[in-house]
Structures are given as structure tokens and as C-alpha cells.
Design brief:
alpha+beta, Agglutinin, subunit A, 5 domains, five-stranded mixed β-sheet, five-stranded antiparallel β-sheet, 44 strands, elongated, binds 2-acetamido-2-deoxy-beta-D-glucopyranose
């Protein structure tokens, strides 16, 4: 047995040396001309490139084959064939000739029949010459064009299994010409094998795939502007780079070496791997730098079947069904095989309230049943997907410049895997039913509540919370007693009861008017006071959607938020019922000199800190992350103890636009409180709320309204005025005179400084609410110096005129911006 093995090794060693041995006495030529050819006779000649890098000649493959092929190899490494002319039409015996015959380059057998020729489109060459370039490119040229870049034919256009430096793999999109790799059939048979590696341009998208026996073995995922979505972040390669080009004319991949002295190539082997090899100086042996696909199972195409996600490193359980899906064969799944994939738990009904779950950092599914629109952004894409009942997932196709292009899928999602890539994350959004959306949100809420609980380290705070929850729970139970609805989560009120309580929405009962509709005072027959908010009718939401939203908001509970007691949805009516606040809103106190004196400074300071804590709760409530969007003094209500409670929170969600960093077409807010980026770009985020909070804080300290602020020396608004005073070192002058008897200088200055930090022009300069809370609570903390506030420009007197117009109107802005891309 061992002897046999030894013998085989010996034979293959000798055979592998065969070409080497042959060529050691071979003659060399530097071009094929009508007078000069390559002959496979006893007088072996080879064609060598000028820099002695590559060599072309006749060879036989290792093994027992007697077939002769015309091939190319590195002169330094003859046993590695990098290109073959006649791989599928071998010479069956020696004495072949590679020559120019009657103006054509041809490979002839011993009886001088043409067995291979390059496919030259412009067929007549006057006086052709074939040269081997130092890049490993065999080119056919007119003699007068020699040494120019004009080729009649080049071997780079017809690669076999090897990608050399500078060779393009992919498509010329103008002519539809494709270059791709095909492996050898086996180690001793260079004819076209079953493994191919090809680029694919489908409907404007670019990806590559490796197929074995016509079935996909590996897919790179689409080109997302930075990388193929299924290939890890660009490898830090020292000897070569991989260049991708995808434009109107061409779609290709190319290896470009960075170090001219190192030899490297990529070779597709018949077991289905592309190996990137380098030839190190000392060893004269190929070293595999990396292999694609990698040996991770998740790289193998559709490893987890349909609608499942493969996560590497989760060994041995690699596969998870996507949210909303369940294994189509539990048995198979238990046996740790996954080919059957997953199916929907419950079919999507295409109802209202369906939404999407983001699956972050993945390789996008295969382009099987899909549609692509290059011009849509993520937001438009989401809408388009939501509006088509058979659309089950979407994603940005291009992740550069903040993301663009809309890819939507309609059938099974195949070949998804985790693909962490710092700085070039590709995300996928999967459609979920309304019920699934709800349960996800509930789960998130539970999680955050738990986190908040564990975060309330001080037992005092904890005790308070417990007490607070108990009271709320009791209160809710009481309210529920009046409800006809079976729903445990959401107390609903009967419209008739509300009509009676508000005296048929009598104008005399109106106690306020927010951005989303008027607020009435109501008194139930039991004597309980309520604040009843009748929402304007343009929320555009259906019954279920509205109810889901309210169910979420009702669960937001914080001492600095007005408690939502329930709702009433009947016919056209959408009504929210809140606890009643007898002490009205903050604006009643701060802008009124007399009332202000009834509240000493420490009460005001307390109110500021309360608002900050309430807002912090809204912002950091994890998945829900409510951006208030209309924070202003009149939305801060005061309870019996004059503790502040934020009202109208969460309404922005009900009125659409709950996307956090997305642009919105509709701006809802109040002049004087909206941030510059919100007005100008329609962009809103938690930092827009921070801006509004800063305005409220400066208004509270100064007792002046930002918008209608007037000063005899300049035309700036309150923010500008505060900024000027701050720079002059006279910040304390901003303080409302009503605090003269009670103020604490350090606290007032701290409030002004934090206020100025909050109203800075650029959102990224503004602190988050958690820093704001920290800065307000900690006397000793060092504060950064504020930069220029937003809207720091003097108003023209013309605008002054329009001020009164705005204050006559509802004070609510609804601006429609042209839909941006
Ligand atoms: C080829 O041979 C012809 C005549 O036999 C001669 O005129 C010509 O110069 C030769 N060309 C080269 C490149 O040697
Ligand atoms: C072998 O090549 C040499 C030089 O190219 C030439 O002189 C000789 O005639 C050739 N012999 C045969 C048998 O072709
Ligand atoms: C050369 O090729 C021709 C055409 O393919 C074939 O008929 C002939 O038998 C071949 N000659 C040899 C010696 O193989
Ligand atoms: C040669 O190329 C032309 C187009 O360039 C193509 O249509 C034809 O099929 C090719 N022939 C062979 C034998 O490859
Ligand atoms: C490209 O991929 C699509 C989808 O996988 C397939 O339908 C098409 O035939 C492929 N085209 C080529 C040229 O391989
Ligand atoms: C490598 O060779 C190419 C062409 O021969 C040349 O243009 C390039 O400057 C060289 N690069 C280095 C780093 O020497
Ligand atoms: C093909 O490449 C893979 C990955 O480097 C390697 O494991 C395998 O042995 C190679 N197969 C052959 C036939 O060279
Ligand atoms: C490899 O050898 C070449 C030629 O001897 C030399 O120029 C080059 O610097 C060497 N490269 C390395 C990495 O040692
Ligand atoms: C949904 O999209 C598919 C694929 O683009 C399309 O065939 C179908 O007509 C669309 N359905 C609707 C209702 O727009």
C-alpha cells in the first residue's frame, strides 16, 4: 500500500517536473510571426514575455494523459498553468504547431488541421503578430500596431480558471461580452469543468455567484456601493487589491497588485473554491492568502433554507427562522439540518398596522422574485413595500451617502446570513403582521421597564415607583369599571359618557388647544375630572392602528408625564382621556409677572428638572423612543404640587411619521420652539426636542417668550439675546426679575448655560437629555461652552409685522415640503 503511494507520488513528481525538464533546453522566441512559430517537436520552443515573467508552450497535464495543450505559466513556476488555448480541443499527439498561417493565428495538429483559433472579429489581418505581454496577456496585433494597446484579440478576454493581475472578470455591458472563470474538470483534465464563477448584472444590480453543476454554491450578495453585501469588509490586502467597477458601461471585478515583485493570482479549483494565492520569494510555493467562499457553512448558498437566517459562530445551531416564521419541519430542525427552511406562522392578511422589523447587518437575500427602483430612498421604499400586499421585505440597494435605491422581495427569502461590517452595514426590513408588530413592541417595553427598574438604584426611587404604579393600577381598574370593552390593556370610554361629561364638547369647556386638537374639561357622573382631547381627524389612521398606538402610549408611565387614562374610538371620533391638571400649564406662570412671584425660584428649578426627566424617559425608552415634536411651555402641565407633567407626548406617532432619523414631509410644531434643521430640512430627531427643551428652559428663566421677544437694542429673539448676554458675561441679566428674592445664582447660571447648549445650531452639538439631566442635577459638573444658537440672526422689521399674524392664527405650523429623495 505504502509502496504504491510512494510510487504515485514519485510519478506525479516526475510528471510535474516534465515541462520544467523539457524547457530547460528549449529554444525561446519573443513573438509569433508568419516566419516564426511554436512547434511541439523534439526542438521544443516557447514564447517568453519581454520581462521573462510569463511563458507559453505545449504541455501535458499531470497524470496519465498524453494530450497536448497550448498553455501559459509563470516562467518561475511552470507547473502552475494559468491559461490554456485549446482546453476543450486537445492535441492527441505531439507535433502540434502554433503559428500564423494565411494571416490567421492557428493551432495545428500533426496533419496540419486547424484544431483551435482565436475568435477574431475583424477577420482579415494584413500582417499579424502575436506577442506575450508581461502581464500574462497573449495579444494578436497588426504589426504596425505592435506595442500599442490596439488588439485584434487578447487572451485576457478568454480566461480559463485563473484570474491574473489586471484581468477583468465580468461584463462589457455595451456589447454583452462576458469574461468568467471555469474550473478544470479534474486535477489531470484541464477541459471545462462544472464549476464556474461569474458576475451577474440583473435589472441594474451587480452580484457574483459560484456555481457547481449549475447549482449555486456561493453568492456574493449584491454590490452595495462599498462591497458585495455577502462579503466581509474589504480585506486589508498587502500584495493586491480587489477592485470593483460597476457603471453604465462595465460591471467587473479585478485583482490589482500593489507590489510588483510579488506574484499573485486567483484560481477557481474544481472543488468549488476561489483561492487567492501568492508566490513567496524564498519558498517557490504557492500560499493561499484567502479562499472564497470561506469555510464557514453560512457561506454556502441557502444553507438554512428559505426565510431563515444563518449566523456563523453559533455552532452547531446555525439557523434561526426570521421573525414571524417557523420551521417547516420541526423534526429536520431538531436534527440540525435546515434545508427545508421556514414558513410563515400565520399568513399575512394585508391588514392595517403591518410593519417591518429591521434585521441589521446581513447579507441580502437572493434576487429571485424581486423588484428594484434605483431612485427611491428607504422611506419611499418602505411605503412602496407596505402598499403592496405581496411585498415581504425591502432594503436599500446602495449604502453609500446615507443609503439609496429600493429593493423589494415578493417570494421566499433565500440565503440570508449575518454579515458584520463596521462602517458599511447593510440592513434588511422584514414585513410583520400587526399582531407580531404589537408583540414585539410589548416585549421591548417589558425589557425597557426592566432596565429602568434595575436602573433605579436608589431604593427610595424604587419605593416611589412601586407606590406610583400601585396607585395607577388602581386608578386604571376603576376607570375600567366604566368600560364596555373587553380589552384589558386599554381602557376605552363610551362616547355618550364623554359627550355628557364635556357638555357635548361645549366651547365653554375648552381648556386648551394643542397641535392635534382641542382639550376639554370633563366631569364624569362619578365626579372624576378628566381632560378630554378630541383629535383632529387627519391622523390618517385606521381603528386598529390607532388603538395599537394608544395602547403603547398608555403604557408610558412617568411622574413627569400626564397619565393617559384611556381612549374613545367611535365612528369618526378619536378621543384621548387624560388625568385632569387643576393648575394649568407652565406658560400661565412664567409669562405672567404676578403669578410668577407666587412661585419661588426653587419651584421653577424643580419644574425645569422635572421636564428634563420626563423627556429623558421619552427619549430613552428604547424601541419606542418617543420624539415629542411639540414641546413648549403650554404643553407642560402642573399638578397639585406644581410638579411638571409633559402632555401631548406620543401624538407624533399617531399622526404618522414615527421614523426616527427620517425626513418628514409634514412639519408639526410651534414657531419659537422648532429647531433649525426641522424647519429647513424637515429632519427631526431627539435633538430637535432638546432644542425645544432649551427654549422652554430659557423662557422659564427669563419669563420672556422666545418668539415675541423684543429688545430696544437689537432685533434678535430670546435665544440670540441670551447668547449676546452670555458672551458679554452678563448672563444673569437674563433672569426674570420675579426671582430677585429667591434665586440661587449658580443654579440660574447653570440653567442658562445648559439652555444655551440645548439650543445650539447643529444637532450634534446639542447634548442628549441624559447629559442635560446630569448637568442639571450635579452642581459641580463642568459644563462645555455653548456655541452659537440656532436662528442667530436679526429679524427684519417686515417679519415683525407677520408675527402678529402668526399669533392670531393657531400658532401651529403645518408646512409641506417638496418630497425629497
Ligand atoms: C519573414 O520572411 C520573409 C521572406 O521569407 C521576409 O521578407 C521577412 O522579412 C521575414 N519577416 C520577419 C519578421 O522575419
Ligand atoms: C531546432 O532549432 C534550431 C534553432 O532555432 C534550428 O537551428 C534547428 O534547425 C532546429 N531543429 C529542428 C529539428 O527543427
Ligand atoms: C488532426 O485534426 C483533424 C481534424 O480534427 C483530424 O481529422 C485528424 O485526424 C487529426 N490528426 C491527428 C494526427 O490527430
Ligand atoms: C466569435 O465571436 C462572435 C462575436 O464576437 C460570436 O458571435 C461567435 O459565436 C464567436 N465564435 C466562437 C466559435 O466562439
Ligand atoms: C443572473 O441572475 C438571475 C437571477 O439569479 C438569473 O435569472 C439570470 O439568468 C442570471 N444571468 C446570468 C447571465 O447568469
Ligand atoms: C508596477 O508596474 C507597473 C507597470 O509595469 C508600473 O506602472 C507601476 O508603477 C509599478 N508599481 C510599483 C509600485 O512599482
Ligand atoms: C480547492 O481549494 C480549497 C480551499 O482552499 C481547498 O481546501 C481544496 O483542497 C482545493 N481543491 C483542490 C482540488 O485543489
Ligand atoms: C523577491 O525577489 C525579487 C527578485 O529577486 C526582489 O526584487 C524582491 O524584492 C523580492 N521580494 C521580497 C518581498 O522579498
Ligand atoms: C406588487 O408588486 C408585484 C411585483 O412588482 C406586482 O406584480 C404587483 O402587481 C404589485 N401589486 C400591487 C397591488 O401593486
Amino acid at each position: 500500500m505504502e509502496a504504491l503511494q510512494l510510487c504515485t507520488i514519485l510519478i506525479s513528481f516526475v510528471l510535474s517536473l516534465l515541462p520544467l525538464l523539457q524547457f530547460s533546453w528549449a529554444a525561446h522566441i519573443d513573438a509569433i510571426t508568419p516566419n516564426q512559430s511554436l512547434k511541439d517537436d523534439s526542438n521544443l520552443t516557447t514564447l517568453i514575455s519581454p520581462g521573462q515573467t510569463f511563458e507559453i508552450g505545449f504541455f501535458s497535464p499531470p497524470g496519465n494523459s498524453k494530450n497536448r495543450y497550448l498553455g501559459m505559466w509563470y516562467k518561475r513556476k511552470p507547473e502552475t498553468i494559468v491559461w490554456i488555448a485549446n482546453r476543450n480541443t486537445p492535441l492527441t499527439e505531439p507535433n502540434g504547431e502554433f503559428a500564423i498561417n494565411a494571416g490567421k493565428l492557428v493551432l495545428l495538429n500533426s496533419t496540419r488541421s486547424v484544431i483551435w483559433f482565436p475568435n477574431v472579429s475583424s477577420n482579415v489581418a494584413n500582417s499579424p503578430i502575436a506577442l506575450l505581454l508581461d502581464r500574462g496577456n497573449l495579444v494578436l496585433q497588426e504589426q504596425e500596431n505592435a506595442n500599442s494597446d490596439i488588439y485584434l484579440w487578447q487572451s485576457f478576454d478568454y480566461p480559463t480558471d485563473t484570474l491574473l493581475n489586471g484581468m477583468k472578470l465580468g461584463w462589457d455591458l455595451n456589447t454583452g461580452f462576458e469574461r468568467y472563470l471555469t474550473s478544470w474538470k479534474s486535477a489531470d483534465d484541464p477541459s471545462s469543468g462544472d464549476v464556474t464563477y461569474r458576475m451577474n448584472v440583473t435589472g441594474g444590480l451587480f452580484q457574483s455567484s459560484l456555481k457547481m453543476d449549475m447549482t449555486k454554491k456561493f453568492r456574493s450578495g449584491i454590490w452595495n456601493g462599498i462591497r458585495f453585501s455577502g462579503v466581509k469588509e474589504q480585506l486589508v490586502l498587502t500584495v493586491f487589491n480587489i477592485v470593483h467597477v460597476f457603471n453604465e458601461e462595465e460591471a467587473y471585478l479585478m485583482v490589482k497588485r500593489t507590489d510588483n515583485s510579488t506574484i499573485s493570482l486567483a484560481q477557481l479549483n474544481y472543488s468549488g473554491f476561489v483561492q487567492h494565492l501568492v508566490l513567496l520569494n524564498e519558498t517557490s510555493k504557492w500560499t493561499a492568502m484567502y479562499t472564497s467562499p470561506t469555510d464557514e457553512q453560512c457561506d454556502s448558498y441557502g444553507h438554512c433554507g428559505a426565510n431563515a437566517m444563518c449566523t456563523s459562530g453559533q455552532y452547531p445551531i446555525l439557523c434561526d427562522c426570521l421573525t414571524g416564521y417557523t420551521p417547516s419541519s420541526e423534526e429536520e430542525w431538531r436534527g440540525l439540518t435546515w434545508s427545508k427552511g421556514c414558513v410563515r406562522k400565520t399568513p399575512l392578511g394585508c391588514e392595517k398596522g403591518e410593519g417591518f422589523e429591521k434585521v441589521a447587518e446581513v447579507k441580502l437575500p437572493d434576487l429571485l422574485d424581486f423588484s428594484f427602483n434605483k431612485n427611491m430612498n428607504l422611506r419611499e421604499c418602505k411605503e412602496a413595500c407596505l402598499n403592496n400586499c405581496s411585498c415581504i421585505a425591502f432594503a436599500n440597494s446602495d449604502i453609500t451617502k446615507g443609503g439609496s435605491g429600493c429593493l423589494r422581495w415578493f417570494g421566499d427569502l433565500i440565503d440570508i446570513r449575518d454579515m458584520p461590517a463596521k462602517g458599511s452595514e447593510q440592513d434588511l426590513y422584514i414585513r410583520l403582521s400587526a399582531a407580531e408588530m404589537k408583540s414585539i413592541r410589548d416585549a421591548n417595553k417589558k425589557k425597557t421597564l426592566k432596565i429602568i427598574l434595575s436602573a433605579s438604584l436608589s431604593t427610595g426611587a424604587f419605593m416611589f415607583c412601586v407606590a406610583f404604579w400601585c396607585i395607577r393600577w388602581k386608578l386604571r381598574k376603576r376607570v375600567k369599571g366604566k368600560s364596555k370593552d373587553e380589552d384589558v390593556d386599554l381602557p376605552t370610554f363610551d362616547l355618550a359618557a364623554i359627550v355628557a361629561a364635556t357638555n357635548n364638547f361645549s366651547a365653554a369647556n375648552i381648556i386648551g388647544s394643542g397641535g392635534f386638537g382641542p382639550v376639554y374639561k370633563g366631569k364624569l357622573s362619578t365626579g372624576q375630572d378628566l381632560a378630554v382631547k378630541r383629535l383632529s381627524k387627519n391622523s390618517g389612521q385606521g381603528f386598529t392602528e390607532f388603538k395599537n398606538e394608544v395602547e403603547l402610549i398608555v403604557k408610558l408611565q412617568h411622574r413627569n408625564l400626564v397619565a393617559l387614562l384611556g381612549c374613545c374610538i367611535q365612528k369618526e371620533e378619536r378621543i384621548l382621556i387624560y388625568e385632569y391638571m387643576p393648575n394649568k400649564s407652565l406658560d400661565h406662570y412664567i409669562f405672567d409677572g404676578k403669578r410668577c412671584t407666587t412661585l419661588p425660584w426653587h419651584k421653577h428649578f424643580n419644574i425645569i428638572r422635572g421636564i428634563a426627566r420626563g423627556l429623558l424617559y421619552l427619549h430613552q425608552d428604547s424601541k419606542l423612543r418617543i420624539v415629542h415634536r411639540d414641546l413648549k411651555a403650554s404643553n407642560i402641565l402642573l399638578d397639585n404640587n406644581l410638579d411638571p407633567k409633559i402632555s401631548d407626548f406620543g401624538l407624533a406617532r399617531i399622526f404618522g411619521d414615527d421614523d426616527r432619523e427620517e425626513k418628514t414631509k409634514r412639519i408639526v410644531g410651534t414657531y419659537g420652539y422648532i429647531s433649525p434643521e426641522y424647519v429647513i430640512d424637515g429632519k427631526f430627531s431627539v435633538k430637535s426636542d432638546v432644542f425645544s427643551f432649551g427654549v422652554v428652559m430659557l423662557e422659564t428663566v427669563s419669563g420672556k417668550k422666545n418668539r415675541s421677544f423684543n429688545h430696544k437694542n437689537h432685533q434678535h429673539n430670546l435665544l440670540g439675546h441670551a447668547w449676546l448676554l452670555w458672551n458679554q458675561g452678563k448672563a444673569l441679566d437674563l433672569m426674570n426679575v420675579c426671582f430677585n428674592d429667591s434665586y440661587v445664582e449658580s443654579q440660574v447660571l447653570r440653567c442658562i448655560q445648559v439652555g444655551l447648549l440645548c439650543v445650539q445650531k447643529f444637532p450634534y452639538d446639542r447634548p442628549t437629555m441624559s447629559s442635560v439631566v446630569f448637568m442639571l442635577e450635579n452642581e459641580g459638573s463642568i459644563l462645555p461652552q455653548p456655541k452659537e444658537p440656532g436662528f442667530f440672526m436679526e429679524r427684519s422689521s417686515m417679519e415683525e409685522g407677520s408675527t402678529s399674524e402668526y399669533s392670531r392664527s393657531k400658532n401651529i405650523v403645518t408646512v409641506t415640503l417638496p418630497s425629497g429623495r
